[in-house]
């Protein structure tokens, strides 16, 4: 169990929280009480439903701040699922030639991603304003407001009063007609905490006469994904509806099928690494992992929290990147940290086309992927799991023996090959 899980187990037992939620419908807890177990700031930040402590997940509980030093726990429907439209085109934006202080091929922080989006005009395009200015960001007081939130089990509305809670806004951009408030993440997400949009929305809705536009933005795999939302009833937390989604990227040098075939024909095949064979179906998350580690070395708990995955899946994705020789792990002060290898840093610092062709080379130098990809190109459709397993069994894969395990790994092979072909223009 993580420190957060252990801390909340202790708090639930100490304050009889489950009983009080069941009998009264909620429980209010102070930062002072939480601090007796572990720092409240570390014990209350759950940006995704997956991040919630086990005792919360098992009992359909969520937590919301109501003042600067207190929180309410109940069976709240606090999160919103995030769906990336796979059929949506990605608009290609030219990078301004006069800007030298942003290296758009090496964007790994949310702040830099937002600065780049503003500098390239993406913010104006998305907001449909001719000219916007960055006006607000950082931490501020929420002021006072009330709202209703849905009980996830009964569907009843639960009233919440907020009195000067802390609000943090990653970016605020004001145009002639609108004020856009952005919550930014440098990771691909399955859901997000509605509070991160709702509290800033309620604060600024009563401060300005213009339309306040709540926006959730992710930046990963060199793509900005913007999601504009609207609260159809400002007094209802769960009235959030999607208005539009748009994807943007800096116009890259195109990758075509011949480029990929050229990598395939010139790659030097290696022996299967003495590392767990990948079981990580989303290669975009492997890239996302590398992007996060380019900023700093990180431990497993932090990666799990930010990648929005189950802890077991964190192991899968770190093992996948280690299989490719792009990350390694080390022990520092009793903690296991993951870091990008020198070769990984070299690749991640390349321009778009070179970077992704180099990563393709890292995949195709492994025998199972190489032969499976050749079958894909020869037949014009991906090999089935049975064929991939047949290929894998010939290549002395490290510590894989059961047919069921081979089959699961074959699914990863197929998804990675799909990712390779998705990069072509």
From TrEMBL:
Domain DUF7226, residue spans: 285-424
Any Pfam family matching the protein: DUF6997
DUF6997 domain sequence ranges: 75-248
Domain named DUF6996: residues: 5-73
Identification of the protein by name: Transcriptional regulator
Source species: Proteinivorax tanatarense
